[in-house]
Amino acid sequence: KNQVEQSPQSLIILEGKNCTLQCNYTVSPFSNLRWYKQDTGRGPVSLTIMTFSENTKSNGRYTATLDADTKQSSLHITASQLSDSASYICVVSSPEGGYNKLIFGAGTRLAVHP
Amino acid sequence: IAGITQAPTSQILAAGRRMTLRCTQDMRHNAMYWYRQDLGLGLRLIHYSNTAGTTGKGEVPDGYSVSRANTDDFPLTLASAVPSQTSVYFCASSETGGYAYNEQFFGPGTRLTVL
Lengths: 114, 115
Description:
The structure holds 2 protein chains of 2 kinds.
Chain A: E1 3-7, E2 10-14, E3 19-26, E4 32-38, E5 45-51, E6 56-59, E7 62-67, E8 72-77, E9 86-96, E10 99-104, E11 108-113
Chain B: E1 4-7, E2 10-13, E3 19-25, E4 31-37, E5 44-49, E6 56-57, E7 64-66, E8 76-78, E9 87-94, E10 105-106, E11 110-114
Parallel strand pairs in B: 2-11
Antiparallel strand pairs in B: 1-3, 3-8, 4-5, 4-9, 5-6, 7-8, 9-10, 9-11
């Protein structure tokens, strides 16, 4: 069964600190892996998209890594800010039956405290 | 540029009632999607449309219907709402559908409560 599992479920860090969020997936066939940021009460917003051949991709203070062999990804946030408080969702894309199916993880809820 | 708008923002609905959630995008994207997000679960695809005039079933289509009369609008209808349809509903769009490597842009969501 195609699944995307994220850890930790929730995380509290102090402003200025770094953190790393984890994503493990069992999805086949694999098309790409995406990280989304979802602020409370808002829709998800894309941070990064990586294909099978990409090991790392950065977007400002966000750096995503992908190990397609072990089917693991991580999202590293550097020098956290209060505005980083949100849910971070790992999404794996898989071609299926006429559309590009997205399998969503349940997300990691990050709280950045002053 | 508004991107994707959804209406209503929230709604409380009696079980058995009919409800249509509206979604409009101004990006001229070909593909549109409806998802539901439930606590502790990832978003799940209800229905999708790769282009105007076509629709397809996603992971959890039962109890929902959609139509795509034009490029911009993609309404989701609950013919007879049940409490298990209480959820937050997100509409999304992408430049193309199918197997394309395309970013999906999400609307702000509609919070629906069925009593």
